[in-house]
Amino acid sequence: MKNSSSFNLSNKNVLITGAAGRIGSEVAKAALEANAFVIITDIKETKLEKVYKKLSNLYPDKVLSFCADLSSQKGIEYLINNALLKINKIDAAVHCAYPTSEGWGEGFENLKSENLYQDLSMQLGGAIMFSQSIMRCFTKQKSGHLIHISSIQGVQAPKFEHYVGTGMSSPIEYTAIKSGIIAITKWLAKYHHSQGIRVNCVSPGGILDSQPESFLNRYRNDCTNIGMLSPKDVASAIVFLLSPASIAINGHNLIVDDGWTL
Ligand SMILES: NC(=O)c1ccc[n+]([C@@H]2O[C@H](COP(=O)([O-])OP(=O)(O)OC[C@H]3O[C@@H](n4cnc5c(N)ncnc54)[C@H](O)[C@@H]3O)[C@@H](O)[C@H]2O)c1
Predict the structure, then answer these.
(1) Which residue range(s) make up the domain with 91?
(2) Structurally, how many domains does the chain consist of?
(3) Which helix (H) or strand (E) holds 94?
(4) CA–CA separation, 81 vs 130, rounded Å?
(5) Which CATH number does the domain housing residue 213 bear?
(6) At 174, phi and psi to the nearest 5?
(7) Is 180 a pocket residue for ligand 1 (Cβ < 6 Å)?
(8) Which of 65, 93, 231, 260 is the most buried (most CB within 10 A)?
(9) Ligand 1 in reach of 96 Cβ (< 6 A)
(10) Does the model's pTM come out above 0.90?
């Protein structure tokens, strides 16, 4: 297929976790459009198979797929070891997997410690353990680029006034996890200095997904041009980071939010 992207990822093998999800599947598509080879992975087998079929139809011989549970070190090691058996090198990894407990989003007053600890562990702990394994691979290769996904909610406090009357909110643990993701990005980038390794982070604004009109209007008023984003808006920023055009960017948190945080 023709390269329809502004950036060229030729000869790059890009591993994308959470690739059956909203952002991960779009990152995989955008990376393929930019000529990358992609390894897609997710815990949800049927959804992943659907994404695999769609992408490999469009880009034959450019997609590998592995179903894996990344909430355990064993699952992470299984994924990376098996990917390396097939492709020898992983040039970049975009960690979009987003595991949540059953009580996710319950609200501050009803938060249960078992759900809180599970979410902190799976989302922030999981991101740290994924980083450990992929860095082992990058260190051996003497090159690699890890991209974590945070959120505008990790950059500043939620705009609670947007949620009034909608039943929606943004959990306290989400803010803790997402600001933690930005912090570990900086830690990892600095820790791996002088090794040809980069670690960056993207903080997207909200993705349009059938939210109530009243919320969308309030949200839009706090943005500059677009309001809620499409997964494509986030994926194209990630492709920029994956490309040689971003070579001097390291330990950075790229906010992609149409000005919501201004
Ligand atoms: N959607 C938004 O509005 C938005 C906004 C800002 C930031 N983000 C962030 O972007 C990232 C991706 O979000 P999304 O909207 O694409 O989520 P999503 O739920 O659509 O996709 C996440 C994927 O992760 C997979 N997953 C869950 N647990 C897993 C596990 N244990 N092992 C492997 N895979 C697992 C899921 O099956 C799912 O396909 C998250 O970090 C999220 O916080 C999302």
Answers:
(1) 13-256
(2) 1
(3) strand 92-95
(4) 13
(5) 3.40.50.720
(6) -65, -45
(7) no
(8) 93
(9) yes
(10) yes
